[in-house]
């Protein structure tokens, strides 16, 4: 049984992914052609706006049901296996740049990055790694908090409530404690998303318009193909 938030987000995500695939085709076309610089910049702006729309919708939905994003039913098991705090891990973007520089796929522009660009990307990578570690520490703190003395006592109270022993104020205490836990998870999720957005913004600021096109094309290609592989492996009946 899916929650109302899950039902709404499934519908949103399917439409959002369709637009993502359309954007990917536009990026690949522009990468192969020689359009004016302003055309590339306009397309990069369109794609990044679309990516940000996902986070705006995600944050609004998570405020109602944050747990839905820690085990998203709209993703395949393969996609879920690669999640890092409800999304892609920021450091993978830097690994992607290295791969693009070596392979030249989908375009060769990343292979022509200057030393100054590489220096800036490395500085960004170090900053983002620190943010990842901060998110991971906070996630660990949230998980460990489940076993603190207050939560253990509340679990005992909740057990008595479910057995008809206590009601009213005690049940209210349990609800307050759970609300605090969910709020903590929502904060961690947003911190992880902010690290993802900072990574994307920082990389695009370093790259030229053509390099931005190739980087975004590779990024979208990865997510689109991972979804296709995941759905194919899981089968439509499991999605």
Automatic annotation (TrEMBL):
Q: Name one GO molecular function term.
A: sequence-specific DNA binding
Q: Which GO terms describe its biological process?
A: DNA-templated transcription
Tell me yes or no: is NAD among this UniProt entry's keywords. Answer: no
Coiled-coil region: 111-150
Q: InterPro entries, per this entry? A: Seed_Dev/Stress_Resp_Reg, TGA_domain
Which branch of life, at top level? Eukaryota
* Protein keywords: Coiled coil
Q: Which residues form the DOG1 domain?
A: 6-236
Q: What is this protein called?
A: DOG1 domain-containing protein
Organism, by scientific name, is Vitis rotundifolia (Muscadine grape)
Lineage of this protein's species? Eukaryota, Viridiplantae, Streptophyta, Embryophyta, Tracheophyta
């Amino acid at each position: 049984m899916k929650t109302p938030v899950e039902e709404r987000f499934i519908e949103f995500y399917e439409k959002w992914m369709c637009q993502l695939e359309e954007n990917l085709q536009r990026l690949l076309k522009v990468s192969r052609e020689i359009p004016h610089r302003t055309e590339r910049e306009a397309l990069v702006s369109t794609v990044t706006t679309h990516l940000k729309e996902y986070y705006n919708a995600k944050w609004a939905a998570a405020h109602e049901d944050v747990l839905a994003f820690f085990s998203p039913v709209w993703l395949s098991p393969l996609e879920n296996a690669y999640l890092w705090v409800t999304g892609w891990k920021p450091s993978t973007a830097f690994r992607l740049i290295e791969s693009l520089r070596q392979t030249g796929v989908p375009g060769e522009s990343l292979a022509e990055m200057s030393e100054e660009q590489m220096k800036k990307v490395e500085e960004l990578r170090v900053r983002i790694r620190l943010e990842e570690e901060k998110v991971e520490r906070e996630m660990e703190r949230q998980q460990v908090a489940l076993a603190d003395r207050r939560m253990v006592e509340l679990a005992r109270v909740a057990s008595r409530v479910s057995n008809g022993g206590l009601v009213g104020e005690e049940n209210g205490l349990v609800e307050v404690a759970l609300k605090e836990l969910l709020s903590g998870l929502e904060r961690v999720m947003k911190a992880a998303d902010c690290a993802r957005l900072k990574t994307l913004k920082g990389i695009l600021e370093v790259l030229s318009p053509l390099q931005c096109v190739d980087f975004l094309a590779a990024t979208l290609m990865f997510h689109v193909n991972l979804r296709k592989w995941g759905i194919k492996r899981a089968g439509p009946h499991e999605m």
